[in-house]
Specification:
By secondary structure, this protein is α/β, with parallel strands linked by helices. The protein is 43% helix and 16% strand. Strands 2-1-3-4-5 form a five-stranded mixed sheet, sandwiched between helices.
């Protein structure tokens, strides 16, 4: 039986032609004018940063330029930035915005890990780019994001990339824990101490000048002075902080008064950083902590420290009404010309006021004025009139052209590439063509340029709003009456305030406009102010390194730690005989694990090998549980989900039954774990031969 072409057309219908799909892909298409960009990223603290980044940029620049039907859009890059969060990567965010605007058809990137190390974010971004018909090609994995068969692969590779970050974080934490067990504290850049090497060993040494200030702070507090009074005294005396600043704050004073490290003892792992949000939270009760006794030289006596803690507890803490912090139209854009710090909101709507952060803490060191928003608006209008004249409609058109030009030409990648290429070349020719000071100056200018384009990028919504608004503005009077701070921000990067009548504008095109006399006020202290409250007696001396404290002095504060923890001692020689490490455990779970381990040692290992029928596959399921709904835990949940799915499917003798997952539930009871109970019922029904899970505690 033979069919002619007409009959074939009635019976034959091609559902999917892979060759046709490949030809339609922008990676393989012969169509002219395909808009192609590349994305490169180098992780923080990566060795060989300049070489790695420059190699990636050079490779993709030549690759895109060599294709006659490809249009080179640019190379977007982020230098020494983590891939855990997209919002922290300015080059990446700008590339995504250009995709939304239809400027890019194809993105080339070295690997999934360079694109993102957050599995959840990567999947969301790829899905959005697919909606925009933008293809991402991952070179190492040889995966195109828009192909129908790539979705599962991308999820798997994303989970692996995220798992690498989590594993590295665990290794670093493990290394720190080993140091704590040995009695080595991680003090960081703590005021009063410095780290140095002596005879090849790292030691912690007291900075006596700073130690004197610390003892005075403790003494003043015991004499009845508040945090604010102490900070004012130190500021007026021009005592420098650890970072060389003139301003002391009540928060800084309190952190010194409550830091046990100044007694020569150290409590490790008090806080934990969320891997994906970078936020810190109290880790008490969540993981082991370590109290290291006599780990370094003491600045204050433990008796004094405990007396201060008791006084803090007796005085209590004043509770203030908490307001949610929100960025406003002026956040970070009103700068004090006298001290260089930003203005902040000190009153809430409807009549908010703004004050210099230094002036808020100490008006003597910084005399900058307090400003209301209507005053700031008048300042803005005064600056606009001086810069643009604002006498006729054509002046408004001039302003319109300025912000339109910036919106249409906001691809800063070429300028960024030019700058880092120049710096890289200068470093290679240091000593012959360029000096070290010239290289530092180039790096400083590049840093300023990056800060400027960040502000320009953040201000884009204000420029778009101003463009729409100006369409209906016909006269200068209408401009003045209808304008808001949101509208005026479209042209102004920041305003530097010296006084109510003296201020300077920095515009988006790099121009500056001065109103009045723009120079900092002199810092003048009267003799009475300098002497005020500054004669504080030093009541105690630095204790000797070999000095020990009586057990009863420590008992008051640390008895609870010893009740809940495992008491460990380590002697590292005669000079360290006072070193003592107390492990503070959140629960007694280690005792249970110890019993289990003893049982295994006594009776021998348990045989977990299943009898294998070569003609029958093993029916395998996986069980996953995370105990909290923090972002780090939820990302771990998704990583396990992708990993176990891929692992079971990839085993030739396994039959994939499914994943049973409980999210944000405690493992102390099976009552509320629906997925766990469903898995047990399926086991009873004979549907499962083998269950895979991460650990006993997860089960």
């Amino acid at each position: 039986f033979f069919m002619d072409e007409k009959d074939k057309a009635m019976w034959v219908h091609t559902l999917w032609d892979p060759l046709e799909k490949i030809d339609q892909s922008p990676l393989h298409s012969k169509k002219d004018g395909i808009k192609v960009a590349a994305y490169c990223r180098v992780s923080p603290n990566f060795r060989g940063v300049p070489e790695s980044l420059m190699n990636q940029i050079s490779q993709y620049t030549h690759m895109i330029s060599s294709k006659p039907n490809w249009k080179f859009i640019g190379v977007y890059f982020d230098n020494q930035v983590t891939g855990r969060k997209a919002s922290l990567r300015r080059g990446f965010s700008r590339m995504l915005r250009h995709c939304e605007e239809g400027k890019i058809d194809l993105i080339l990137v070295k690997s999934v890990s360079r694109f993102s190390r957050n599995a959840k974010e990567l999947v969301e971004i790829i899905n959005r780019l697919n909606e925009l018909n933008v293809t991402v090609y991952f070179e190492v994995e040889n995966v195109e994001s828009t192909r129908a068969d790539s979705n599962y692969l991308l999820k798997t590779y994303a989970a692996i990339a995220q798992c690498e970050v989590e594993e590295l974080s665990s290794i670093i934490e493990w290394g720190h824990e080993k140091q704590f067990i040995k009695g080595v504290p991680l003090l960081g850049n703590l005021y009063g101490y410095k780290r140095m090497k002596k005879d090849g060993d790292k030691i912690i040494q007291i900075i006596e000048k700073e130690a004197t200030i610390i003892r005075e702070i403790f003494q003043m507090y015991l004499e009845g002075k508040s945090y604010t009074e102490i900070s004012n005294i130190l500021t007026e005396r021009r005592v420098k902080t650890k970072f060389g600043r003139d301003l002391w704050t009540s928060v800084g004073v309190k952190s010194i008064l409550t830091n046990i490290s100044y007694t020569g003892n150290y409590i490790a792992r008090r806080r934990k950083r969320d891997l994906f949000t970078n936020r810190y939270y109290d880790s008490s009760g969540l993981r082991d902590q370590y109290y290291i006794k006599n780990s370094h030289p003491a600045i204050v006596d433990l008796e004094v420290f405990l007396a201060v803690q008791k006084q803090i507890e007796n005085q209590g803490t004043r509770k203030f009404k908490q307001y949610e912090r929100k960025n406003t139209v002026l956040t970070g854009r009103v700068v004090c010309g006298n001290c260089g710090r930003n203005y902040c909101v000190i009153d809430r709507p409807p009549k908010p006021r703004r004050q210099c952060q230094t002036n808020k803490k100490n008006h003597i060191i910084c005399p900058s004025p307090i400003l209301r928003e209507h005053q700031i608006k008048e300042m803005f209008l005064t600056g606009m009139e001086k810069r643009f004249d604002l006498k006729k409609r054509s002046d408004i058109q001039k302003m319109l052209r300025l912000i339109r030009r910036f919106n249409d030409n906001d691809n800063f990648e070429f300028h960024r590439l030019k700058a880092i290429t120049y710096i890289d070349m200068a470093k290679k020719m240091e000593g012959t063509q360029f000096t070290a000071n010239e290289i530092k100056e180039s790096e400083r200018k590049y840093k300023e340029f990056e800060e400027k384009i960040i502000k320009i990028e953040d201000d884009r919504p204000y420029r778009l709003e101003a463009l729409e608004w100006l369409k209906d503005v016909q006269t200068v009077d209408e401009f003045r009456k209808q304008s808001t701070l949101e509208h005026l921000r479209a042209w102004i990067l920041e305003i530097v305030v010296y006084s109510e009548d003296d201020y300077l504008f920095r515009w988006i095109d790099g121009e500056e406009t001065e109103i009045g006399k723009c120079y900092p006020a002199e810092k003048i202290y009267s003799e009475e102010e300098i002497k005020k409250g500054h004669k504080v007696a030093i009541a105690y001396q630095v204790p000797e390194k070999s000095q020990t404290y009586e057990e009863e002095n420590e008992k008051e504060q640390f008895i609870q730690l010893k009740e809940n923890g495992l008491h460990l001692k380590k002697y590292a020689g005669k000079e360290d005989e006072n070193l003592e490490v107390v492990k503070i455990m959140p629960t007694k779970s280690s005792m249970l694990l110890e019993k289990v381990q003893n049982s295994i040692n006594k009776y021998g290992p348990i045989d977990m090998n299943l009898p294998v029928d070569p003609n029958k596959k093993i029916r395998v399921a996986a069980y996953i549980r995370v105990s909290t709904d923090s972002e780090e835990q939820l990302n771990s949940f998704k990583t396990q989900l992708a990993f176990y799915s891929f692992y079971i499917i990839s085993q030739p003798n396994y039959e994939f039954v499914g994943i049973y997952a409980d999210e944000g539930l405690s493992g102390t009871s099976t009552k509320n774990r629906k997925e766990f109970n469903r898995m047990i019922e399926d086991c009873k029904s004979g549907k499962i031969d083998l269950i895979i899970t991460k650990s006993i505690s997860r089960f």
